[in-house]
Amino acid sequence: MTTITLHPDFRVAPVDRRVFGSFVEHLGRCVYTGVYEPGHETADEHGFRRDVADLTKELGVTMLRYPGGNFVSNYTWEDAVGPVEDRKPFLDLAWRTVEPNLVGTDEFLQYCEREGIEPMMAVNLGTRGIDAAIGLLEYCNGEAGTKWADMRIANGRVEPYGVKLWCLGNEMDGPWQIGHKDAHEYGKLAAATGRAMRQVDPSIELVACGSSSMMMDTFGEWERTVLSYCYDVVDHISMHAYYEEMDGDRGSFLASGTAMSTFIERVVASADAIGAQKRSDKRISISFDEWNVWYLFSRFEGETNLPVQRDAPRIIEDVYSALDAVVVGDLIISLLSHSDRVAVGCLAQLVNVIAPIMTEPDGPAWRQTTFHPFATAARLAQGDALQVKVDAATMATAKHGDVPTVTAAATVDPETGALALFVTNRTSEEQVVTLRHPGATARIDGGSAVLADHEGPREGKDAAESYGMVDALPATHEDGTITLRLAPESWTAFHGTLES
């Protein structure tokens, strides 16, 4: 018998709304024919697709990271501001694509502003450094009377953008990164750049590059070394992780949330160790600013094998199954369960590139299977994350060892008592769960689920749109006990109330 126990007085932390962020990189068709397509029947006066913007709002995205990603590490931001007709294309070395520079800093930030989305900007610490970073920050946030702020004003934007969240480069531990550095080189540069940026705008939040994966040879030592240089300068350290089913190992894939939790806890331990060494009361938070299901090893040919291409080529356009959606839901459970340390999250990416939203040029936009758990969690997860105790059997996996068969996260709105409970059943059998709430009053009013066994054609809008959420198996209330039934290999979002 599986039991889940919770109480409204036992809380982890408020859920930072930025954990429901996403990512727009100049990669493939994420920007061009993704968010931006002048001439499309839904395009607004600025060239951005209204159908994509409407789906982004439905998805519940609160924040967008930009412009990369690997793309940022040989990006000259100055070449993509000012009159579009004066901008010159350049060769992006990360994805071997000719970038037309039709969308740049102003276009992106004004899009975020119109859509009510917080921007997260990254600076180039690959081929560039301090000077370019402080110039971009001044361009975005500076007041009139300085060089870069006056350039912004000359380009038609008088008021500063007030961008608060800044990434100090991207995946600088990765040998694939243009301008790759070792931990000492990067740590020193991040510290120096961060200090200079705070001179321009002391109110900003800074993200240092953590490991690109827990499987990197430098993992752990990278965090320790980098933070030894910049602990006092930065607010967050980044984490990136992608998960896929390998060689038919369904059990390990379904347990991806356990791997994500282990990753988070190890990075937190590394950060806290540096804090203890420095005798600091400061706590570094996690910016999990790239996460998703991505068939990186089994479907992607690798960026070094890509030919040089123009005109927004189709790169990394994974088509997702219902099983992938269950795993995305399980990853969200991991993020919510660590709300005391995870301040930022970015589902990578927003459109077309391993994305919940797909488009066709001059055609429709639609939801992939992974759209639904993200949108449901973003809508329901309000208020504070709760401590959730799950007593469940374990199952053996090839990659992660023994893992829980059932995982769960919950939130409660302290003002309304609205409860959201998210539960994954990783087994191939229906699970019966007793929901315990000692000393509190609880009710489950309903729910919806993603079922991994929902199989069928997924290509194109009509097929993909058939993969929505289904009604959860009904909960029963009897003698103060709530019984939940979980479909096999499913992710379920229950809603109700919980009060002391």
In short:
Residues 289-490 form the Alpha-L-arabinofuranosidase C-terminal domain. The chain is of the alpha/beta class.
Structure description:
The chain has 500 residues and is an alpha/beta fold. It folds into two domains: 16-382, Alpha-Beta Barrel (TIM Barrel); 389-499, Golgi alpha-mannosidase II (Immunoglobulin-like, Sandwich). Helix content is 25%, strand content 26%. It has helices spanning 50-59, 105-115, 130-141, 147-154, 183-200, 221-230, 250-254, 256-277, 322-337, 371-380, 460-464, and strands spanning 2-5, 11-14, 21-23, 63-66, 90-92, 97-99, 118-123, 165-168, 205-208, 236-243, 285-293, 342-347, 357-359, 365-367, 384-386, 389-391, 394-397, 401-404, 406-412, 418-425, 431-436, 441-451, 470-471, 476-478, 481-486, 490-499. The strands form six sheets. The chain has an eight-stranded parallel beta barrel, surrounded by six helices. It has a seven-stranded antiparallel beta sheet with strand order 2-15-19-20-26-22-23. A five-stranded mixed beta sheet has the order 16-1-21-25-24, with no helix packed on it. β8, α5 (183-200) and β9 (205-208) form a beta-alpha-beta unit. α3 (130-141) runs parallel beside α5 (183-200) and α6 (221-230) crosses α8. The radius of gyration is 22 Å and the shape is globular. The mean pLDDT is 95. Its EC number is 3.2.1.55.
Q: Key terms for this structure?
A:
500 residues; alpha/beta; TIM Barrel; Immunoglobulin-like; 8-stranded parallel barrel; 7-stranded antiparallel β-sheet; globular
Please describe the topology of this protein:
Blueprint: E1 2-5, E2 11-14, E3 21-23, H1 50-59, E4 63-66, E5 90-92, E6 97-99, H2 105-115, E7 118-123, H3 130-141, H4 147-154, E8 165-168, H5 183-200, E9 205-208, H6 221-230, E10 236-243, H7 250-254, H8 256-277, E11 285-293, H9 322-337, E12 342-347, E13 357-359, E14 365-367, H10 371-380, E15 384-386, E16 389-391, E17 394-397, E18 401-404, E19 406-412, E20 418-425, E21 431-436, E22 441-451, H11 460-464, E23 470-471, E24 476-478, E25 481-486, E26 490-499
Parallel strand pairs: 1-21, 3-4, 3-12, 4-7, 7-8, 8-9, 9-10, 10-11, 11-12
Antiparallel strand pairs: 1-16, 2-15, 5-6, 13-14, 15-19, 17-18, 19-20, 20-26, 21-25, 22-23, 22-26, 24-25
Helix pairs in contact: 3-4, 3-5, 5-6, 6-8, 8-9, 9-10
Protein name: non-reducing end alpha-L-arabinofuranosidase
Catalytic activity: Hydrolysis of terminal non-reducing alpha-L-arabinofuranoside residues in alpha-L-arabinosides
Keywords: Carbohydrate metabolism, Glycosidase, Hydrolase
